[in-house]
Amino acid sequence: MAITLPLQPQEEAKLIAVAQARGLSAADLVREALEGILDPTAGKPGPAKEPTRSLRGLLAKYGPAPSVEEIDQNRAEMFADFPRSDI
Predict the structure, then answer these.
(1) Which end of the chain, N or C, is less packed with Cβ atoms under 10 Å?
(2) pTM, whole model, 2 decimals?
(3) Per-10-residue mean pLDDT for the chain, 87 residues long?
(4) Domain extent at residue 13
């Protein structure tokens, strides 16, 4: 199939200059552009996905977790007055 594309002289000159800069003919450059339009996934990797991070990686900025002894000590301090007798 042949398609005629009306171009202004300056547009044609730009097309030829870009094709020559890439080492292609004007027809090959247009064919390359059409392949990108007709099949946008050809030759292009998908969008770059940000790597997922584990929960451990997300919480790493908070430092090491409290030890079992520290947790037991905190619980004892929090519940020392529970239930309160002054209520």
Answers:
(1) N
(2) 0.45
(3) 87 92 91 84 70 81 91 92 73
(4) 9-38
